Amino acid sequence: MSPRDPKRLRLVAGSALQRRVLAATAEEEPSPELRDRMAGALGVSAAAIGAASGAAVAKATVSATKAAAGISTTSALPWITVGVLGLAVAGAIFSAREWKASVRPSPAPAPRMIASAPDFPAAAIEPASPAPVPRPDLPDVPSGGRARMAAAPVDLRGQTSLVDAARDAVSSGAADRALAILRQYQDRYPAGVFRPEAAVLKIEALAELGRGAEARTLAERFVAEYGEGSLTDRVRQVAGLAHP
Amino acid sequence: MVKSAMIAMPEVPVARTAEDNTRLERMFATHHATVWRILRRRGLSRDAAADATQEAFIIAVERLHEVQSGDERSFLIRTALQVARTLGRKSQRWHLEDDMDQRGLEGRNTEQRRSDIELCDLALSKVDPELAEIFVLFELEELSSPEIASLLEIPLGTVASRLRRAREEFRNVFARIERTMHHEEQP
Q: What is the ipTM of this complex?
């Protein structure tokens, strides 16, 4: 570590959950089966694999020591039990609710848990001929603990799938399609976790379509709503807003 | 230092001397998990990351004599990043495991760790890819800023500014996810 480098987030991040998540990710290892498969394909001997295991143990030990030097993680976050975390990561609880909302004819607005993204004016999201929009797979209505766990990925998978699809559409110049996907995201997840990202993509799509005035209006709302940040920088650049 | 690692996959690994074999084994033992993790953070599944890791090492085999001693990790990371780019964005999705419903059968710690990793990947998937690359190298693989600057061949100041923005984006996304979780936890 360079003397001028900031401290790693996994040691100084604002929340215990964030520190724990970063530490777990930094320590992820391929399974022995995957490791053996890779080694076998490369003609690497079993002795080397053994050495790899030793290195992994050493890394884990170092990481554990670092974590121990930081603030206690799990114990500092009593409201998140392992079960709740597992469900929450997968979006289990709110996925069930949002999934139900998504299949109701007139979904009730979900509670706003985060600062809302700029509203999307209806006039700004009417593609000339709506293209087919990919829909994340929706399973049967779950019931019971295990079934709910099985359905858990749907919500976050659905959200991330739509946002990724919109991003791909923008990247490939299919701005109309991107707008249709983003409208679907907004309808399905009115309080979605990735509303700011969706708003940025909408501004990019509008700009791509030459609808500069609408892009600018949304960009101004975005800046007012979210303040400074890297997403705001991007919005300013796309919509041609002046930097403060 | 090898400046770049062009992707040119051989059909089969080239013939190696005993010395080459020893060096490759050492490289694999020391760095395969790092390479695999970096590819995982690009949105690849565990299996796909293993395949891509294999590709990175096959390229390393081809160019073993160009890799200076002590530069192995940089070469492999640089190669892994290029392999990931050649795979294209379409194959790089935040990957929810297919066996989520089996989690209850696993140990509590294993289940929690896998959930933690998925949460991190979810947040990372919403960070600008150029920034996420720096974030992963610094925050997760613990490279220093000068190492990253050298590896990516960009100025140190660019590394610092991208890292700052990456941390900001990651924390913002993560905080939103966390608030949602907290909200749902309330009765």
A: 0.83
